[in-house]
Amino acid sequence: MDHTETKKRRVSTYQGVVVDLTEDIVSLPNGATSVREVVHHPGGVCVAAVDDERNVFVVRQWRYPFGRELLELPAGKLETGEDPLPAAQRELSEETGLEADKWEDLGCIYVSPGISTEKLYLFLATGLRQGQAHPDPNEFLDVEKMPLSKLAAMAMDGTVHDAKTVVGALKALSFLGRN
User: Which of 3, 7, 80, 102 has the most C-beta neighbours closer than 10 Å?
Assistant: First the structure.
């Protein structure tokens, strides 16, 4: 069966600084119509920066929608038209001060495909050198270092809730285990 939905009409309902929202009327495979609210997002990057002792660098920051601090891999939003690798290098440097000699592409994930166009590009950074962090003016975070195996265990036991961190930690551990 063909599951394709065809856009009949789009109405822009919100244009924001980070996201735009549209309401699309779609034709369903059975001929009926439905509404799809879509959050349009430019995408982002996420970096598992792992040192020679297999420690990973994470950031702890307040996440307003959840009203709490979360432990996350360094990450950030893509600028319009920006390539993911330079964005990942920029975000790692801004948030942690780290630079890396080697970068591995760990793939792309769809953050919430039922409602959002956001694609998140995951990277593994190794051969680390420490510099000075320079977060954005409205970005408040603490950098922590822990064994990658501990972060992966926290992802598996539900201690870490951030999806990009769960996927990034498990993919990095898998990649390093094969090499």
Answer: 7
The rounded percent of the chain whose pLDDT value lies above 70 is 99
Three-state SS string across the chain, please? CCCCCEEEEEEEEEECCCCEEEEEEEECCCCCEEEEEEEECCCEEEEEEECCCCEEEEEEEEEHHHCEEEEECCEEECCCCCCHHHHHHHHHHHHHCEEEEEEEEEEEEECCCCCECCEEEEEEEEEEEECCCCCCCCCCEEEEEEEHHHHHHHHHHCCCCCHHHHHHHHHHHHHHHHC
Same domain, 136 and 170: yes
Per-residue pLDDT tens over the stretch 103-133: 999 999 999 999 999 999 999 999 999 988 8
pTM, to two decimals: 0.94
Please indicate, yes or no, if residue 51 is contained in any of the structural domains: yes
Q: What domain range is 80 assigned to?
A: 44-178
166 and 96 within one domain: yes
Give the integer Cα–Cα distance in Å for 75 and 120.
Answer: 9
